[in-house]
Amino acid sequence: MLLVSSKLANERVMIDDSSPEGTARIHLVFDKGKLISQDPASTVFFLGGG
Amino acid sequence: MLSTRPRHWLLLALSGLLLFASDTRAAGNQRQLKPQEQKVIDYLVKDWGQDFSVTSVDIAMNAVKVQPSEETRFRIGSYIKVHPELHEVIRRWGWITLVLTPDEKLIARALINAERENKPAPGIAELAKAVTVDEAQVKRGLSMLERYEVLRKETSAGQTSYRVMPHYIKWEPRLDFVFHKVSLDDGRQFNTN
């Protein structure tokens, strides 16, 4: 997230990941630092902050 | 004088044997890389650490346009495994993080989770479904994991199954076999930690 919101803040960034407790794949797309799509839709994404 | 001479010969013979044994072991570990493989290593060493990169071998092979090949990937991965001095990223994140593909990591995780939960090891079809790949990809993944000694193949009554090596069962759950692959519009790909 640090990269997406700083160095890559003006870019379209795709992240392929997985659920750490299983084998489900997660695909996220950020555009200019903002999350624009997430698959699966039920993905819980922690944006940080206190 | 005469009584000590045989001991000297024995010591000399043992020293020679030890030298031969260590040379043989070193030759086994110090794989000679082909120029294309060295190109991948050079790319990785330059890439690792930049933008929190822990880029894996498959991505690097694609970046430097090396012909996709399981054998080439295994040779490069094996080189990284025995050369942690190449980069801090290898020492910090471990060679497993860098040499396995996402599919292989997910296959390993499916087997490890089943073993941790005392469930029967999933078969090829179950693994394919869990990892959302086809059965041929699962077989290739299992073969690679076996070559890296993450898994051990067992055959009983004509049935083949795979067991996770005990070392990996003890790894921290939810922190093992992870990947975070980043793709940018300009085509650059890398993994982060």
What does this structure look like?
The complex is a heterodimer of chains A (50) and B (193). Chain A has 50 residues and is mostly beta strands. Chain A has one domain. Chain A contains 1 helix and 3 strands. Chain A has a 3-stranded antiparallel beta sheet with strand order 1-2-3, with no helix packed on it. The radius of gyration of chain A is 11 Å and the shape is elongated. The mean pLDDT of chain A is 86. In chain B, strand 3 and strand 4 form a beta hairpin. Chain B has 3 domains: 1-30; 35-100 and 177-191, no CATH class; 102-169, Arc Repressor Mutant, subunit A (Orthogonal Bundle). In chain B, the strands form 2 sheets. In chain B, strands 1-2 form a two-stranded antiparallel ribbon. The model of chain B is unreliable at 17-28 (pLDDT under 50). Chain B is globular, with a radius of gyration of 21 Å. Helices cover 56% and strands 10% of the residues of chain B. With 193 residues, chain B is mainly α. Chain B contains 10 helices and 4 strands. The relative contact order of chain B is 0.12. The chains are: A mainly beta (50), B mainly alpha (193). At the A-B interface, strand 1 of A face helix 7 and strand 3 of B.
Could you give the order of strands across the largest sheet of chain B? Answer: 1-2
Strand tally of chain A is: 3
Q: How many helices of chain B does DSSP assign?
A: 10
Relative helix content of chain A: under 10%
* Count of separate structural domains of chain A: 1
Structural class of chain A: mainly beta
Q: What is Rg of chain A?
A: 11 Å
* Overall mean pLDDT of chain B: 87
| N-to-C CA distance of chain B | 65 Å
Q: Order of strands across the biggest sheet of chain A? A: 1-2-3
Radius of gyration of chain B: 21 Å
* Element string of chain B (H = helix, E = strand): HHHHHHHHHEEHEE
| Beta-strand residue fraction of chain A | 35-45%
